[in-house]
Amino acid sequence: MGVSVDKVINGVCITVTGELCDEIEIEEFFNILDQQITTEAQVTFLDASTLEAAIIEKLADIQSARKLEISVVKSYLYSYMYKLGIRCKYNPMRNMSSGIISKKLQSAEVKLGREEVLYFLENINKKYGYDYTEYQVDSIMRRIKISMLRANTDDFTGFQNLVLENDSYFEQLFLDFSINTTEFFRNPEVFQVVKNKVLLHLNFYSHIRIWCIGCSTGKEPYSLAILLEEAGLLHRVQIYATDINPYVIEEAKNGMYSMDDIEEGIQNYRKAGGENSFTSYFELKGNYIKIKQGLKKNILFFQHSILGNGIINEFHLILCRNVLIYFNNSLQKKVLRYLSDSLDKNGFLVLGKSGGILQNGGYNYFTKYDEINKIYKKKELV
Ligand SMILES: C[S@@+](CC[C@H](N)C(=O)[O-])C[C@H]1O[C@@H](n2cnc3c(N)ncnc32)[C@H](O)[C@@H]1O
Asked: Which of 276 and 110 is assigned the larger pLDDT?
């Protein structure tokens, strides 16, 4: 980990190795950037897949004032910067996809068998501790094919070896497995019911515990925080916001979004019955927006897989929206049991609009509260 500076004609090249998350290193990096006011600077991030909000803000500020070329090696960081309107070059020089693509493969050329895929998933779990063995296998197979195309190979045995022997290939496969689609106030009618009905029940508690599972880049927990703030409850609430994917958790902590996100948010917020100005919850920074600090302070973001063992708390409300759909039926059943065990005896569960609990034995643990919006109450177990 570190920051190194090389002088080149008319300027400097700053190379950042490691994740740059240590405060002293960040300070050192900022000092170096501040010294280069008159010379042209080029910064290359070699290993980072995400960057802290303070670093991104600094880069954006400098770019608006003077010439600063930014290069990134990781595709995840490139997409993130691009979303936020920060000009940068994708330079996969140390990345596994940097090999010359010798032939263009078509996804149809890649043939996979279920048994060998399951064996591969077991090996991934043994090596990296991520268990995909009970995810929907068809979807996993599609995603493996995408990752194989990215690695420019149609040889599944060779690809398995690459992933199991090289962290970078696993990282890319992990990202290909991860579907992080989300919106502010997604399915606004659900938020309307939470606001008008569920909060009345939660108001009863002096300290309200909420768990947002599979929170992705944070739009769902921040929507909840806005709702709770407007109901005058936020100061009594602790929201746990978790996701298996550590990169989306870093994005969520940053709370920085694109201008397109705000447009979509405005529409959904109105449909959810919001009466304030949605943009008043953000600092507007030119090319991007940043959630205001006051909405962050009651949210604890951390990486967590819902498939790990152990109850982390007893919650009054759990949102697990658009996560179970990626699991097979037997895993959905186990997770529903786990969610029930993680709820207070009068707790509520909100699932995604396309998910349901009927087919998965969920009625052993939950009763209907609002079936249309997939809101359930914990059933008292006898
Ligand atoms: C489609 S997004 C849903 C985001 C948000 N809940 C919503 O509905 O807008 C699904 C999220 O679930 C996360 N996820 C998948 N498997 C998980 C697991 N085992 N534990 C926790 N999160 C998981 C993914 O990383 C992804 O961010």
From this structure: 276
Q: Is 188-378 in CATH node 3.40.50.150? A: yes
The partner residues of 68 in beta bridges, in order of sequence, read: 41
CB atoms within 10 A of CB 151: 22
Q: Which atom of ligand 1 is nearest to the CA of 327?
A: 16
**Best CA proximity match to 320, nearest among 296, 343, 295:** 343
* Three-class secondary structure of residue 302 per DSSP: strand
99, pLDDT greater than 50: no
CATH of 2-94, one of 3.30.750.24, 2.40.50.180, 3.40.50.720, 1.20.120.330: 3.30.750.24
Residue 98 pLDDT > 80, yes or no?
no
Dig out the tokens for 35 from the structure.
Answer: 């010294």
Task: Count Cβ neighbours within 10 Å for each residue of 48-64 and write b for 16 or more, e otherwise.
Answer: bbbbbeebbbbbbebbe
Task: Specify burial of residue 32 (Cβ count, 10 A radius: 0-12, 13-18, 19+).
Answer: middle
Look up residue 346 and give its amino acid: N
- Check if 244 has its Cβ closer than 6 Å to any atom of ligand 1: yes
Q: Is residue 35 over pLDDT 90?
A: no
Mutational test site, ligand 1, from 128, 183, 243, 339, max ligand atoms within 8 Å of CB? 243
Between residues 103 and 214, the one the model is more confident about:
214
Give 216 Cα–ligand 1 centroid separation in angstroms: 6
Structure tokens at 190: 């659900």
Q: How far apart are CA 303 and CA 305, in angstroms?
A: 7
Q: What is the pLDDT of residue 5?
A: 80
| Amino acid making up residue 328 | N
